[in-house]
Amino acid sequence: MSVTATPARPGLGARLRAAYDSDLCYHFRHSPVAVLAGAIVALMLFGAIFAPWVAPHDPFDLASLNLMDSFHPPVPLAGSVWTFPLGTDDQGRDVFSAILFGMRISLEVGVAAVLFAMVVGVLIGLLAGYAGGVVDAALMRIADVQLTFPAILVSLLVDGVVGAVLPTDLHRSLQIGILIFAIGISNWPQFARTVRGSTLVERNKEYVMAARVIGVARWRVMLSHILPNVLGPVLIIATLNLGFAIISEATLSFLGVGLPPTEPSLGTLINTGNNFLFSGDWWMTVFPGATLVLMVLAINLLGDWLRDALNPRLR
Amino acid sequence: MAALLEVDRLCVEFPTRRGVLRALDHVSLSIAAGEVLGVVGESGAGKSLTGAAIIGLLEPPGRIAKGEIRLEGRRIDNLPPSEMRRLRGRRIGAIFQDPLTTLNPLYTIGRQLVETIQTHLPLSDADARARAVSWLEQVGIPGAADRLFSYPHEFSGGMRQRVVIALALCAEPQLVIADEPTTALDVSVQAQIIALLKRLTREHGTSVMLVTHDMGVIAETADRVAVMYAGRVAELGPVASVIQEPAHPYTAGLMASIPALDRRVTRLAQIDGSMPRLNAMPPGCAFHPRCARAVAQCMAEQPGLMAAGRTEAACWVPVKEALHG
Amino acid sequence: MASYIGSRLLQAIPVLALIGLLSFALFAYVGDPVTIMLGQDYTDAQRIALVHTLGLDRPFYIQYLRFLWAALHGNFGNSYRIAEPVSTLIAQRAPATLELALTGTFISVLIGIPMGVITGIWPRAAFSRVFMVISLIGVSLPVFLTGILLILLFSVVLGWLPSFGRGSVVHIGAWWTTGLLTVSGLKSLILPATTLALFQMTLIVRLVRAEMLEVLRTDYIKFARARGLKTRAINFGHALKNTLVPVITIIGLQLGGLVAFTLVTETVFQWPGLGLLFVQSVAVADIPVMSAYLMMVGVVFVTINLIVDLLYFAVDPRLRVRRSGGGR
């Protein structure tokens, strides 16, 4: 996520990076909330990425599951076992391990959906700003309509339509992809609007004219100027959208159109646990739920902080 | 003339994460009853900030660190907020720069006038409305009684500034602080607004602190003038003296850079360099890096205002000769 | 005034047509209604007969126009899942959704706007900071999880409130049912309405606060201070009114979110409303219901946007038609 990732000339990239780094670092170090949120996100990323090695049990290995182990409560309670610190579910699956793997899938879907939205949004924004006129008007009108339609509804519709069109087993095997597409497609307009705005500003600047006079392709010059400019806002939108995408995925999984119990995300775990809520087995819902909230909260805090730090007016 | 307003060694500071910035440094000036004091200087010299400090509306985290502000001999810089509020509008009015943004777009001008009048004066609705109409007439709004029900967007820029003047003066303050009142207006309207302001304040005996960077406006309107530079008062004196016989090298440079119609010059003078930033103030006199007359003392010791010719200047080596004559 | 509303109405038409087209495409081309309606065993003759009855052998635009015509008369075909007219299903469930959504919105606006104003005026006060932390947690808390946690606390642990359904309802008129007139109905409403209100409220608080901070920085507020107006008059008169202009728009836009969150809330609490109907239909690809729901949501959005525009018009004099002659 560093500035060097852009195709800007190395000199400019390095200078921008130095400028960004100093201020951002200063703000980060002086914001306890940001540091705490960063630490939580880092810890969760670590747990999610290394889940197969960190988790004490493999929740997907059916052979290792024992129904005798089912419905253990979490540790300090009567009937708990130390091998299952957060208790077990109806299948005898370790809740702690399931959460680690669930985080992995939630983050996977969330990040992929945001990246998808970002790529689509940035491309459409560049196109709208660069082309202008009818193309611009049409694209932005679509973005407006898309924005009024809530993401969950769009995702539900996309999922429902795909479900009706595809045969069931194919649908199941493509579920993650469908989910990423459904969540991503409803989030592109914000990226597109930001990039379009910046493109419109740059388009009329003198260097663009100058570049044209000396025969350099206009879009190439613009791109190298626009990308560094929109990097900050895009990064902020991406961070704030990540929390939203993770919530969307969890909600869809809860509604039963997300990920199947064989590939449980945090939302699926909460949904499964919800069935046992009334028998008093609260830990199957509460722990994945708390993890989800903590994760999204930490990401949102980082996003808020990033927005404040990059927005000079609020400084 | 006894001083109506005295600003005495006023210091305003802004704490920032890289240390405290002193934006006003021992600013002293006074305004007599019925007098027009012009305050000139480059942007960032502290003109507007002085005005904001006087009406008690410094933007946080800015604060008065030292010094006093006295109105009719009574300190007002340490008044509790509620008392300071009652003073604003009633005894000290303010006119802002951009009339397009200073009026609330969602209220009729009549409502804004009546609200202001009733805040300060114990008048019935009907009396307050009559007073509002009278003020709109005084500032030259045609069809005043009907225009009470108009919204700001229904007026042109010049007309809106007239409404702003009516709002600032409608509770008859003794002093009005006009912060760049014509800068945002069309050139053709500027003179009308200045003339209006001059006439109204004379009729009502109101003192004016006229903040501007336009020496022409000052020359035409002000009785005395304060020249500010880098948060300090560089020179203070009667307007004619400051224009014709400036004692501070900065003022002299400023005057030489103004094109005059009665003289033919091939090239306007300019002052090399730029005003120092608040976080990089030179020791001694803030002007010395740009000053041709600077001596060793200028770099070591900060000068206070002292009598120099017919004005007061904060300079160790004041200019003696008259500018043109 | 008339031309303003007229232009707004004109703008709504293409949006409605587009949504209608989407609904129609969904209805006509997704899945195979014929196969679904005939079941496993059928003859070619039966199939051809049904295709003809449904009009699926007619050209595209004829089908579209017929679809729109039928929709205008409230006819969306029959549900695949429950062999009943979609219009009947919708009519049965609309009151439940409306009561839930309106109660939730009412609570959230009632609490959200004052809280936003207060945290905007005194951003550095302790309670503002506490409230902002709470609202941040609220934004990070998915609606369904709020619902589950409320059920866990108030139904499972404390046993005070019912966790699902609408309680007993009273019939009013031909087709309206209300839960607002019975004790069990009101008790059933508390948890879902709170769930819905909490999420909306956090959004409203953050929004109002941001706008308030923005407005308090403007020149006209500074000028109002410079005229010595009372702080109360500035904050709750001048600033609040200017804050409301953008807030109305964005709350209007948020109503799209309301539809989505009502849907989730209904699922959590098994609230017999339209959202639950839609979710159940998506799960089994009950296309006629999905298509009708999409169309209905579209109409609701357009209507709400129109209302928002009218409110905007009432608040902001700049939008009112300028009277000629420069006078009044």
Please provide a written account of the structure:
- The complex is a heterotrimer of chains A (315), B (325) and C (328).
- By secondary structure, chain A is mainly α.
- Chain A has one domain: MetI-like fold (Orthogonal Bundle).
- Chain A has 13 helices and no strands.
- In chain B, 33% of the residues lie in helices and 24% in strands.
- Chain B is globular and about 65 Å long.
- Chain B starts with a strand and ends in a 12-residue tail after the last strand.
- With 328 residues, chain C is mainly α.
- Chain C is 74% helix and 2% strand.
- Chain C is built from 12 helices and 2 strands, in the order αααααααββααααα.
- Chain C has a two-stranded antiparallel ribbon with strand order 1-2.
- In chain C, α5 crosses α8 and α11 runs antiparallel to α12.
- Chain C starts with a helix and ends in a 13-residue tail after the last helix.
- The chains are: A mainly alpha (315), B alpha/beta (325), C mainly alpha (328).
- At the A-C interface, α5, α6, α11, α12 and α13 of A face α1, α6, α7, α10 and α11 of C.
By secondary-structure content and strand pairing, the structural class of chain C works out as mainly alpha
Helix-strand string of chain C: HHHHHHHEEHHHHH
Mean pLDDT of chain C: 80
Q: CATH superfamily assignment of the largest domain in chain C?
A: MetI-like
Tell me the helix content of chain C: over 70%
| CATH fold-level name of the largest domain in chain C | MetI-like fold
- Number of β-strand runs of chain B: 12
State Rg of chain C.
Answer: 24 Å
Distance between the termini of chain B: 30 Å
- Strand arrangement, largest sheet of chain C? 1-2
What is the global morphology of chain B? Answer: globular
Supply the number of helical segments of chain C.
Answer: 12
Taking the sheet with the most strands of chain B, its summary is:
8 strands, mixed
- Measured on Cα atoms, how large is the radius of gyration of chain B? 21 Å
Measured by DSSP, the beta-strand proportion of chain B falls in 15-25%
Mean pLDDT of chain B: 88
Question: Uncertain runs of chain B with pLDDT below 50, 5 residues or more?
Answer: none
Helix content, binned percent of chain B? 25-40%
Largest sheet of chain C: 2 strands, antiparallel
